[in-house]
Design brief:
The chain is mostly helical and 197 residues long. The protein is 57% helix and 8% strand. The chain folds into three domains: 43 residues, no CATH class; 100 residues; 34 residues, no CATH class.
Length: 197
């Protein structure tokens, strides 16, 4: 613990079991309390599963519950990584998670979403709850998984509706276009719009 000369604020720095964390506080008491809490979390080991639960609680608390896709995606994270200690969530563990998910049939886009959710959990855990792990390991794992071809972007789709489908959409488009605040009212000259004219 040391006091910064210019601002008079207290700087707490922790170096423990491969973690290096620091934060600045207005008084020494708060800096010491933070340091004790973080050291305890590192020693006792919070789990990724606990971070998933905390994230779900936080989102529900602010009125933004997880959507169906995200709720489905955090389940494999909780199942496969949930019981390990957070301090063991290193680059190698995340890469192995990606390989296992890929072997189970998850494609590059799905795996990219999973890795993104792990990063979100770690970022929110650090920002909201002072979790001692940074998302840097996830970024490194993503780079490795990308090079292995396990993480990637989706392919662009270009789907044109069949002319008969355009005609079946006409009643719905006409009803929507009649609304004054409808996005359909300013619909450009598309095949669907031309079929209804």
């Amino acid at each position: 613990m040391r006091q910064e000369r210019e601002s008079g604020r207290w700087r707490a720095q922790i170096r423990r079991r491969g973690h290096s964390l620091g934060d600045t506080f207005a008084n020494r008491k708060d800096a010491e309390a933070w340091a004790r809490r973080i050291e305890s979390e590192i020693d006792n080991g919070k789990t990724p599963g606990a971070l998933v639960d905390l994230h779900i609680e936080d989102m529900n608390e602010v009125g933004k519950p997880l959507g169906r896709t995200k709720a489905y995606s955090v389940e494999p994270i909780k199942d496969r990584l949930g019981r390990s200690k957070l301090e063991n969530l290193a680059r190698e563990t995340i890469i192995q998670f990606g390989r296992d998910r890929s072997a189970d049939g998850a494609g590059p886009v799905t795996l990219s979403l999973d890795i993104g959710y792990i990063r979100t959990l770690l970022t929110d855990g650090a920002a909201i709850h002072g979790s001692p792990l940074s998302p840097e390991q996830v970024d490194r794992a993503r780079t490795a998984l990308k090079r292995l071809g396990l993480v990637g972007k989706g392919q662009e789709r270009d789907r044109r509706p069949h002319p008969k489908m355009n005609l079946s959409l006409c009643p719905a488009i006409s009803a929507l276009a009649a609304r004054p605040a409808s996005p359909w009212s300013g619909l450009p000259n598309t095949p669907s719009r031309r079929a209804c004219d």
